[in-house]
Amino acid sequence: MRATEKRTLIGINAGISLAHVGNYIYLPILVPTLAAAHSGFWAGFVIFLTYVGRLLSTFFYEGVTARLGNRNGVIVGVLIEAFAIGLMGFVSGIPLFSVLAFFVGFGSGMSFPGLKNIIGKFSEEYRPKAFASFQMACQLGLLGGAMLGGVFAGVDLRVLFTVVFALFLVYCLAAFSMIPVDLEDRPEEATPLFSAAVLKGLRVGGGAQYFLLSSVFWVLAVTFFVGMPLHMSEFVPEWFPSVPFWITGVALLVLQFPTFKFMIKRFEPGHVMAVGFGSVFAAHMLFGAGRSATWVVIGCVIVVFGDILFTPSFDLWVSKKMPKDRLAKAMGAMHFFRSFGNMVGSLTAGLLFDLAIKAGIPGLNWYIAGAVALLCALFSMVNANRETAGKRVTGVVAEPRAEPVES
Q1: Contacts (Cβ under 8 Å, ≥6 apart) of 215
Q2: Can you tell me the distance from the alpha carbon of 215 to that of 338, in angstroms, rounded to the nearest whole number?
Q3: Are 8 and 116 in contact, with CB atoms under 8 Å apart?
Q4: Any idea where the Major facilitator superfamily (MFS) profile domain is (predicted)?
Q5: pLDDT tens over the chain, length 407 residues
Q6: What's the angle, vertex CA 129, arms to CA 315 and CA 74, rounded to 5?
Q7: With contact defined as beta carbons under 8 Å apart, do 59 and 106 qualify?
Q8: Contact status, residue 273 vs residue 314, Cβ threshold 8 Å
Q9: How far apart are CA 345 and CA 356, in angstroms?
């Protein structure tokens, strides 16, 4: 890996890791706090507004990148997110939390695809390792934040959110000092500040189905993210709500690189995605049927294979299909569908939890989400088989599958 790319990747990974530390310190505390004061629906609604912000930012992303460049666009997004989070410690009530949550999401929607866009411009042979390490950095931050969250249980919210605000400022400093100013492959200055044309990133290689599947995957991911703290408060009250995120974080640290390396070397991206969805299905069935601490642990170990397999496979597929000068549009499209999925999942997770409790059918929320995951696994497998068969019929030789390499 070239020295510039290595330094850039260190800055990106350090920043995104700190962001996840901050998010997983406060969110597992905020969600059950809002649910206890209001309901599962209102807790999910506040998280829902973060994804509304992320979705809207999709239409500004390319225009901001055209004017500021990747690095500066990332920095502006991080600052917006930081100040919105910091203010959360000094407000009360669903309306004010909702407004700030919107700006948290809007800032994240500017910075997150910007980081992936930068990685997508790395040398092709190093992209798999870079995307996998990016995912690993996210999970390291998740684990650190979940563990630190226990320290802040019962702490005044002003202290909690001030600490998270400080972490995001360090994230901003890492981006400023280690990511080079982006002077190459910038969009034309005529690019409008607001544009829905980002969705044209879908028009690549007939792969729209993967973008749609990614949206459903993120519905399921945020169902776990929002639903698990509610589940723990109701069925496993002896454990702190963020314990499941400790488990998933440790499992990802151990399994991320060897699992993804093994799978992407041997199978098409669609097949790898199908296995990821299958693991989400199995985990959700366990959460619904067991509900005790033991089943939570087993399910959390299984559910991580969704993140391990789906996310980097999809990132790699897009980076290989798209030319560098269209990566900003493609990453914006990816973020649109991720945000839409997160938005739907955060709203429905609270509703499904309330429905399961009121209907007297514990685990119903997990069964419904698991059924969706199973359908996606089957669809992804069938679609991947069709693509493979098409290559054989037309005589097209598949490109060698990229394998993560050691730097």
Answers
A1: 337, 338, 340, 341
A2: 5
A3: no
A4: 1-388
A5: 577 888 899 999 999 999 999 998 998 888 888 888 888 888 889 989 998 998 888 788 878 888 888 889 999 999 999 999 999 999 988 999 999 999 999 999 889 888 988 888 888 778 878 887 887 888 789 888 988 887 887 788 899 999 999 999 999 999 888 888 754 445 555 677 766 665 555 554 455 677 888 899 999 998 998 899 889 988 998 888 888 988 988 888 888 888 988 898 888 877 898 999 999 999 999 999 888 899 999 999 999 999 889 887 887 777 666 666 666 666 667 777 887 888 888 888 888 998 998 898 989 999 999 999 999 999 989 887 887 776 666 554 444 444 443 33
A6: 60
A7: no
A8: yes
A9: 16
**Dist. CA 171–CA 167, nearest whole Å:** 6
CA distance 235 to 298: 15
Pair 177, 28: CB distance under 8 Å: no
Nearest to 7 by CA among 157, 96, 118, 88: 118
Distance of alpha carbon 200 from alpha carbon 263, whole angstroms: 30
Show the tokens assigned to 285.
């069935």
Number of residues that make up the chain: 407
Quick one: tokens of 24?
């997983």
CA angle 137, 153, 54 (to 5 degrees): 45
Q: Tokens 């028009």 identify what position?
A: 203
Separation of alpha carbons 138 and 23, rounded Å = 11
